[in-house]
């Protein structure tokens, strides 16, 4: 079978190279030779470590009737959307690692694919076969929850910031050099990349047809050493967590940093590793762990899809994005989410401050669980506190009231606690 790779960057180059390096075993497993015949790039003059023929014209792939499988690894949304639609219209099988594309267009692409194979394992949790596990391995179950660390860049950054005190900008640059980060790293640090992955899983597990703007997304940009102090003091790790959870007939989908007890398995997932816990009503908890980003790890999942397509030939693509789930589940509004919260407040260090702050919490029906006060320079102090479980709307109202209170001298910060 002939393969055209559109986008020969970090992942695309690894796909071409692994198809060559591991050709014998891949051919044996696929039952047919898989030959990457051409790659499409933006800039033909750039030095690349690949031996396939390159072009800067995507039509060289789309209009070549001998190409069976189009591998889309260019990144972005609109251009890949056009390219994938054209490939499907020509009856070519498609493999993509593009979660941003699927976050917006997964249901349309599923309809367009019809019985043309369309696979996307590398789009979620890189090299971990989580799509395979959720769509096929756990298909007997109602999914109760999916909780995971699904952005390698953020996890790598948080691990280095917490364990080694490396500063944010240095470690972000390192993640880019290692090929972990998206072309625009705000997708990573802003939580959007993890949200794209969550939306894909939410469609497979619950049939929720939501877009990024419908769900709660927060990134890691505002985490400070004071937050890390509080976490250390009370035995928490700080992680960017991706959560899908069934609560009655509503589905929570949210991505944000959390304080998570150090003894939870997911708290031990460090560096570029991803970890996903899926709880099914019959199987119980299953855990998946592996590299979430990087050229070879991601290409491993891309090639698994290519081999799978070669093995089964044409047939139902089974993208697996559900629409009627049988249970009539709906997305839970962001305001109704309930969890525990950690708050960092910078306050004036003088009499009466604590009582003012406590009154605001009492008014919003929020109960405080733990608190430490750390003196700062110039008659100021940090109040670092955690709450008992309360409603997202009440916390947001309290944050507004605190911001307006004269004793609070800086915009308060909040991180949710997952326990
Ligand atoms: N890097 C990872 O660890 C990783 C992991 C999982 C998924 N992904 C996804 O895989 C895709 C590729 O990521 P990457 O890290 O390899 O990106 P990259 O920036 O390293 O490579 C992108 C390639 O696409 C080419 N390209 C971009 N726009 C093009 C256009 N309009 N026409 C022709 N060529 C074009 C570029 O020249 C480059 O060769 C993205 O969708 C990304 O989200 C990446
Ligand atoms: N930028 C992504 C790539 C893998 O999807 C990450 O860091 O997880
Ligand atoms: Na995967």
From TrEMBL:
Q: What is its EC number?
A: 1.1.1.3
According to its UniProt record, this protein's enzyme class is oxidoreductase
Q: In which pathway does it act?
A: Amino-acid biosynthesis; L-methionine biosynthesis via de novo pathway; L-homoserine from L-aspartate: step 3/3; Amino-acid biosynthesis; L-threonine biosynthesis; L-threonine from L-aspartate: step 3/5
Q: Which InterPro entries match?
A: ACT-like_dom_sf (IPR045865), ACT_dom (IPR002912), Asp/hSer_DH_NAD-bd (IPR005106), HDH (IPR016204), HDH_cat (IPR001342), NAD(P)-bd_dom_sf (IPR036291)
Select a single GO molecular function from the record's annotations and give it: NADP binding
Read off the PROSITE patterns from this record: ACT (PS51671)
Annotated NADP(+) binding sites:
6-13
| UniProt family annotation | Belongs to the homoserine dehydrogenase family.
Question: PANTHER family recorded for this chain?
Answer: HOMOSERINE DEHYDROGENASE
For this protein, the record's NCBIfam families field holds: PRK06349.1
What is the protein name for this chain?
Answer: Homoserine dehydrogenase
* Species this chain originates from: Halarcobacter mediterraneus
